[in-house]
Amino acid sequence: MSKLGLALGGGGARGLAHIGVLKVLDKEKIKISAITGCSMGAIVGGLYSYFKDAGQVEDFILKAIKEPKFENLEIDSLNTNKIKHDKNYFDQLINYIGEKINAIKIMGRVSYFDEEITDKIYEMLPDVPIESLKIKFSAIATDLISGEEINFTEGSLRKAIKASSAIPGIFPPVEIDNNFLVDGSSSESVPVGRVKEIGADRVLAVDVSRCLKVVKPAKNMIDLLYRTEDITSYHLSLLRLKEADLIIQPKVKQLSWADFDKAKEIIKSGEIAAVENLDKIKKLVHRNVYLLGMGQYIKKLKGYA
User: Fold this and answer.
1) Which residues contact 150 (CB under 8 A, 6 or more apart)?
2) What does the angle CA 35 – CA 250 – CA 136 come to, to the nearest 5 degrees?
């Protein structure tokens, strides 16, 4: 019997497209044996492994982003896609001064949001052992001390997700077992290889990394962080996706990681992408394991050519 694994990539709000993909798989009664996620992929994948129902994941996420504790973060203010260019001189001056003051304040910290605020957000997630989940699950995080990639296959689901989605500079690093962990996308943008480690023999990857466009030089620290994350994610995705048997790329690449106000639209994009690739997904599920292995071997040879 085939063991389909999902590799769910990071991308902030863009990663909500994973929910749409899962909704289609649920509707088609396609069994998932294992999920590995990083960043938003870890959040969605972890919740799906807990609920084993995409509709419940969708309800949970949509309710969570409407919670005052989430809305009070004002993540929308970090969205570079929504910069207004029609402000008068006085408004521009006030904003400029405000940015300078905020920049000075956070220079002495490791993140934009502090530990207390971050903890309140992640309190919404279920705190259960990963080993107890209904579907095999793992979450990718990156250790700032050693630079190594950590694949959480056991322990607290909440802590693993928190570490995997700790966007550098935005959320504080998470300390687990003497490791100082940040967003898994720093080392593994779409964790294809890791999902095979927890039992998958074929991998469907969902890539929601942002398009890499030529842009103007960064004007501030936030712009710089966004740009470096985009570059890293783009090149890592190209490398990691070569290991996947099938790749789905929902049409969300033009969106910002902070576009949570477009949640329903993003989820719908995931559904559309899954439906468009449904025949390929079904063929992947039913493909002979020996033929699949041969195809993976040929892909590796081409990769080394």
Assistant:
1) 140, 141, 142, 143, 163, 179, 181
2) 5
pLDDT of residue 250 exceeding 90: yes
Instruction: Decide the pairing of beta strands 4-8 and 202-206.
Output: parallel
Q: Say if residue 106's pLDDT is above 70.
A: no
184 near 10, Cβ under 8 Å?
yes
How far is residue 25 from each of residues 68, 134, 278, measured CA to CA in Å?
A: 32, 16, 9
What pLDDT is stored for residue 86 in this prediction?
43
Instruction: Report pLDDT for 203.
Output: 95
Identify the pLDDT of residue 296. Answer: 65
Q: What is the pLDDT of residue 94?
A: 40
Residue 145: φ, ψ to 5°? -75, -55
Distance CA 217, CA 50 (A): 42
| CA–CA–CA angle 284, 289, 293 (5° rounding) | 95
Amino acid at 185: S
Burial of 80 (0-12, 13-18, 19+ CB in 10 A): middle
**Phi and psi at residue 278, to the nearest 5°:** -60, -40
Residue 105 pLDDT level (bands cut at 50, 70, 90) = low
How high is the mean pLDDT of the chain? 83
CA distance 269 to 179: 36
HSE, side-chain direction, 13 A CA sphere, residue 257: 24
Q: pLDDT tens-digit profile of 184-193?
A: 776 667 888 8
- Calculate ∠ Cα 73-76-82, nearest 5°: 160
